[in-house]
Design goal:
This protein is α+β, with helices and mostly antiparallel strands and about 1150 residues long. The chain contains 37 helices and 21 strands. Strands 3, 4, 7, 12, 13, 14, 16 and 17 form an eight-stranded mixed sheet that branches. A seven-stranded antiparallel sheet has the order 2-5-15-8-9-10-11, with no helix packed on it. A hairpin with a 4-residue loop joins strand 9 and strand 10. Its EC number is 2.3.2.27.
Length: about 1150
């Protein structure tokens, strides 16, 4: 199309214009009379009145442009109105944040200079424009609900890292985090804000007042009598703490809540353009509404919802004239939001499915046909940004109608193939935080969200004791409570149905993005999505990403569930077409994805160390097992230092493997899985890969042709690289012989599944644990209310003052519980529902199958990313701890089998020499320790094959010096607890009388010993004459160290306590002291277990090591008894101090353990004698 302007004329070549009447039949242009009537009906005057036909100017396409110019110029007095608006304001007409001079501290400001993120302790920034007269308003879109102070300041205000807006004399602020207002001093004001809220800041410089609104609801006047006069002008300003973020709207977009009469936005709306755009939209509506019946020679009314262009030249040329003026306007964000988005939303307001409104698709076709490409791109970008903003910052109402409205329009736009592909390629993940579309925010204020109408009756469980534990006494539910519970559950079901509507729309969006059949005009949507999705994961996995692109965990949780639903839809759809493929219930990731370079795992840690080193050390195994040759260009040169370390590591590994095939490496203390660094020490890396290469004898190379592979970046991949074609297996290149030759599903879906597992590991698990806090709050308040009601019942009638205070407390607790129980209903539906639990369970089973398939490949198992094992452990933990009591894991299909398969993985891999990362090894050990704590999971361990059980016990009995021994020792203790002397308690006996509230420590579960695993241990100790002495010597060495450390620490504590000056013992020192004591007790219990199960190790003089072991044991027991039982000794004095943190330190635990060993030795000596 030619460039646009006031004097633009359409070329006849482009539009085939015709002035000759005889050509009308050929071109489709209607006769001049009908055309004149049509154009006058479409292009009405501003007052809407049509002049009589005799006085109307005859319209043709030749003079239409002149007529249109005249219509658009009518009543356009915008210049005068803009001059009036500017009075009382100083600064640029386009108001933005002053990122050059008007800030304090480190801040990240968006490209449009309207969004800001705190990057220091308390950064402040102001706008470029100030006001000194009149009434003004601006809006702040709250993206995070942390510490911020929003309001107004003067040019003279000086801020720093401690003082911000509202902390100086001429600055005024509202703080919704602490629910206060600030002007040097502070008082209570307003309501608490939440992410997704909009704060309106109003200043009236005629009356001298400042007020604030939250989501359009006035919070009242915050300040009056503010300083005015010569030289006093106020700037919009904000101070915010680290990582808090907001976006300002000074008027560059329509205000969301412009309801306050007389107040103007700081930035003037584009009045002239608005008038013009609305007129042009009216003409466009007329074209859609009016049809031409050529055969009858008259104009007819048409059903606008089913309008189609159908190649009518008259209509097309008319539209071309409209779009000639309309297109440039649609590049401006204000007009897109105010005119275009409003119009498109009105089309969908008639109800019905999105498919029932093809008009939006027709309009998008017109845009691509009649607008310049750059104009369509900008228009679509602004439209999606406006939709995202509207969805994110819409208040929660009972039927979620606003959210549904915006999602429906998003779906309608994305249904248009060309628009979808452009948005996917350039906008959804590049410009927008599009994951917001899949998030359903949780209302902080349940009253405004209408939850009181949805859930009129509240209820909470009363089955907790004062210690917060679940009461074991099953109490009969009263009739009144049963009615309340059922009414509450009905309310929760009503809420669930409404939220499911939103979730269904969100899944529809993902189904459109995962469409792989729309290959018209280039790559299918799914492959564009895959590349963007991978980049999104990389930004969030690196922890080095810009704060503006990092996805908040709460968004990631919702995105994960919607993506699982869409993925399973396509997976099972493929299964229906290809019966040989696997269903989604059998889904797993084949192991070749981890080493063939087709999927980028960034710098994420592999089980065997760094990928670059694995490629060097296992290149022969790759060639032999998978017929894969690594591209030589990818094998980086190894420095001389690395080579030396490699040789030393190989030698040490070969030596260490002789006594036992599964020695663990390193002895670092356990760290949480989410803190694991992307790289380990070089020694560990080389040690691991050298060990892996020795594990399997190399096979002679087969006759199959070797395939040279190289790692592809996300941008380099094509559809063929993913799906494969003509003998190319795509993502499945390099199938190992252990992997079945069976189709799984479409390769692209495998990569989506891999990304879902990675997402869970990045932040979903952490967020699931965080949201449990609301349930804990409900339990605490329920206990407080129950306690208060008991006090009311016991309160003497004469003490009215106490009775009144108790009634006030009861009212506060009841109101808080009503609020929390409704909020908990929302969280249970959106995060902890049965369907969400099934998603996490499905993910657990996917990880288990993936690990099992990877394990069969031998040395190539080292290529698997660590996060697969982490997700397997964490998802089981989430199912067990986070979803109950609302949903029970026992009800899940195949639960027992899944528990056993996970137990087999933990039992095998906690000491797997192919796994080198100390963090993941510690996590496996801790998961196994947790597994043997509970009867249900312990039985799962007992059900794994006998060979695996024996191997696990052998690994647990390996000498402690070679690895982190504390966790191993806890596992053995837990297998024994309940069988030892005086070792059946669940509450610490010595605290029951003095401090009953401390007697129940969280680590003291009900004993559940395993006689089966004890028998395996006994057989191993008896049969392997080398294993028993090496194991016991290491236990005795650790006991000697732990008890000596404990004694040294209590000496320091005693000395500090005896000093005259006031001394405070460091809490960390007390914690370490208590840990050393607990370790000593647990090591003694392991010795008791060994003496009981295999006494001949100490008492059979035919064994060469028996006498030495018995002597060492006797010396250590003697040392313990001397230190603990001597009269008025150091141990007594420290125990009597009753220091917080040393509750577990007492005579009882350690003396009963020593007694148990001595009793067994005496009994078994008699038997042997």
């Amino acid at each position: 199309m030619t460039s646009r302007g006031a004097g633009t004329a359409f070329s006849r070549k482009n539009y085939r214009l015709s002035t000759e009447p005889e050509k009308s039949k050929v071109t489709g242009i209607v006769n001049s009379r009908l055309l004149n009537d049509y154009l006058h009906r479409v292009f009405t005057s501003a007052d809407g009145n049509q002049p009589a036909a005799a006085y109307r100017k005859h319209l043709t396409f030749q003079n239409l442009q002149e007529h249109l110019d005249r219509l658009l110029a009518e009543e356009n007095g915008s210049e005068d109105s803009q001059d009036q608006v500017a009075e009382g304001r100083l600064g640029p007409s386009a108001v933005v944040l002053d990122h050059t001079s008007g800030f304090e501290g480190l801040l990240l400001v968006d490209d449009d200079l309207l969004g800001v993120i705190g990057h220091s302790n308390f950064g402040s920034i102001r706008a470029t424009t100030c006001v000194y007269k009149g009434k003004w308003i601006y809006e702040v879109l709250i993206s995070s609900q942390g510490l911020m102070q929003i309001g107004w300041c003067t040019l003279n205000c000086r801020f720093n890292q401690e003082e911000g807006v509202g902390d100086t004399p001429d600055s005024y602020a509202y703080d919704g985090n602490r629910v206060r207002k600030w002007n040097v001093t502070t008082t209570n004001y307003g309501k608490s804000w939440a992410a997704g809220d909009i704060v309106s800041c109003l200043i009236d410089l005629d009356e001298g007042t400042i007020a604030f609104c939250l989501n359009g609801i006035s919070l009242g006047t915050a300040f009056d009598n503010i300083t005015r006069g010569a030289g006093m002008a106020y700037f919009p300003a904000i101070s915010l703490s680290f990582k808090e973020s907001v976006a300002f709207n000074f008027g560059s977009r329509p205000l969301r809540y412009p309801l306050v009469e007389g107040y103007r936005p700081l930035q003037d709306p584009p009045v002239a353009d608005l008038v013009k755009a609305r007129k042009l939209l009216g003409y466009l509506k007329n074209v859609i509404h009016i049809g031409i019946d050529v055969t009858e020679g008259k104009l007819v009314e048409k059903d606008t919802s089913m309008w189609q262009l159908q190649g009518e030249p008259t209509v097309l040329i008319t539209l071309a004239h409209i779009f000639n003026y309309f297109s440039p306007l649609m590049c401006k964000v204000y007009l897109v939001e105010d005119v275009l988005m409003t119009f498109l939303l009105s089309i969908l307001e008639r109800g019905g499915s999105v498919e029932a409104h093809p008009l939006i698709q027709q309009l998008l076709d017109l845009m691509w046909l009649l607008m310049e490409e750059y104009e369509v791109h900008e228009c679509l970008k602004q439209l999606l940004m406006s939709l995202l903003r509207a969805y994110r910052f819409s208040p929660i109402i009972p039927d979620l109608g606003l959210q549904i409205h915006y999602l429906r329009l998003t779906i309608a736009v994305l249904k248009h193939e060309k628009s979808r592909k452009y948005l996917l390629s350039n906008v959804l993940f590049d410009v927008l935080r599009s994951v917001v579309f899949f998030y359903i925010k949780s209302p902080l204020r349940v009253e405004e969200a209408g939850l009181q109408e949805l859930i009129p009756t509240t209820w909470w469980p009363n089955r907790f004791t004062k210690e917060g534990k679940e009461s074991k006494e099953v109490k009969e539910e009263g009739a009144e409570e049963r009615l309340r519970r059922r009414a509450y559950e009905r309310g929760c079901q009503r809420l669930k149905k409404r939220i499911e509507v939103v979730e269904g729309l969100q899944v529809q969006i993902l189904k459109l993005l995962l469409n792989n059949k729309d290959r018209g005009g280039g790559e299918a949507s799914r492959y564009i999505f895959l590349n963007k999705f991978r980049k999104f994961l990389q930004e969030n996995a690196s922890n080095r990403g810009n704060l503006t692109v990092l996805c908040p965990p709460e968004y990631m949780v919702c995105f994960l569930h919607r993506l699982i639903a869409a993925l399973r839809f396509f997976w099972d759809g493929h299964k229906a077409k290809s019966p040989a493929a696997l269903s989604s219930e059998e889904a797993y990731i084949p192991p070749q994805l981890f080493y063939n370079g087709k999927v980028d795992y960034f710098d994420l840690q592999r089980l065997g160390g760094l990928l670059s080193h694995l490629k060097k050390t296992l290149k022969d195994d790759l060639a032999a097992k998978a017929n894969v040759l690594i591209d030589p260009a990818e094998l980086q040169a190894v420095t001389m230092d690395d080579l030396d370390e490699d040789e030393e590591s190989a030698t040490s590994t070969a030596q260490s493997q002789r006594p036992s095939a599964a020695l663990a490496i390193g002895g670092a203390l356990a760290r949480p899985g989410w803190l694991s660094s992307p790289t380990l020490g070089r020694a560990n890396r080389f040690l691991s890969t050298a060990a892996v290469s020795l594990m399997n004898p190399r096979r002679p190379l087969g006759n199959l042709e070797k395939i040279k592979v190289r790692t592809l970046s996300v941008e380099q991949r094509t559809e063929e690289d993913i799906e494969g074609s003509h003998g190319n297996e795509g993502l499945l290149l390099g199938r190992p012989p252990e992997e079945p030759d069976q189709p799984i599903t479409e390769n692209s879906l495998l990569e989506v599944l891999d990304g879902i597992v990675m997402m869970y590991n990045l932040s979903v698990h952490q967020q699931l644990g965080k949201m449990v806090g609301v349930s804990d709050d409900v339990n605490e308040y329920a206990m407080a209310l129950k306690d208060t009601e008991e006090k009311i019942s016991r309160c003497p009638k004469r003490r009215r003052d106490i009775h009144e205070e108790l009634l006030k407390s009861q009212k506060v607790f009841s109101e808080k519980l009503n609020h929390l129980s409704r909020r908990l209903a929302w969280i249970n539906v959106t995060i902890y529902s049965k369907e969400k639990m099934q998603d996490i369970y499905w993910l657990l089973r996917v990880c288990i199958r993936t690990i099992e398939h990877g394990d069969r490949t031998g040395s190539l198992f080292a290529f698997m990313p660590e996060f697969y094992l982490s997700v397997a452990m964490n998802s089981y933990s989430a199912l067990k701890n986070y979803f109950s009591p609302v949903n029970s894991m026992e009800e899940l299909p195949g639960y027992e089998e899944t528990l056993m398969r996970l137990a087999a993985i933990l039992a095998k891999h906690f000491a797997d020499s192919r796994i080198v990362g100390t963090d993941i090894r510690d996590s496996l050990m801790q998961a196994l320790a947790s597994y043997v704590c509970y009867p249900h999971s312990l039985h799962a361990v007992e059900r794994i094959p006998e060979e695996q059980r024996i191997s696990m016990m052998k690994n647990l009995l390996a000498p402690y010096e070679q690895r982190p021994w504390a966790q191993t020792n806890w596992i053995l203790v837990r297998l024994w607890r309940g069988c030892g002397f005086g070792y059946r308690y669940t509450r610490l006996p010595h605290l029951l009388k003095t401090k009953p509230e401390d007697a129940s420590l969280p680590s003291l579960q009900k004993p559940c010993p395993s006689t089966l695993l004890q028998q395996h241990m006994a057989v191993l100790l008896r049969s392997d004459r080398d294993l028993a002495p090496s194991f016991l010597n290491s236990v005795l060495n650790q006991l000697n160290w732990a008890f000596s450390e404990f004694i040294g620490m209590i000496q320091e504590i005693q000395q500090a306590a005896e000093r005259l000056e006031r001394n405070f013992v460091d809490s960390r020192q007390l914690k370490v002291c208590a840990t050393c004591f607990d370790l000593s007790v647990s090591l003694l219990r392991v010795l008791e277990m060994t003496v009981t199960l295999a006494p001949e190790i100490f008492l059979d003089w035919n064994r060469p090591s028996s006498e030495l072991l018995l002597r060492r044991l006797a010396q250590l027991l003697n040392q313990v008894l001397n230190r603990v039982t001597a009269e008025r000794n150091l141990f007594d004095r420290v125990v009597n101090l009753r220091l917080p943190g040393l509750e577990s330190v007492d005579h009882y635990p350690i003396l009963v353990a020593v007694t148990g060993i001595l009793v067994r030795l005496l009994v078994d000596t008699d038997v042997q004698g």
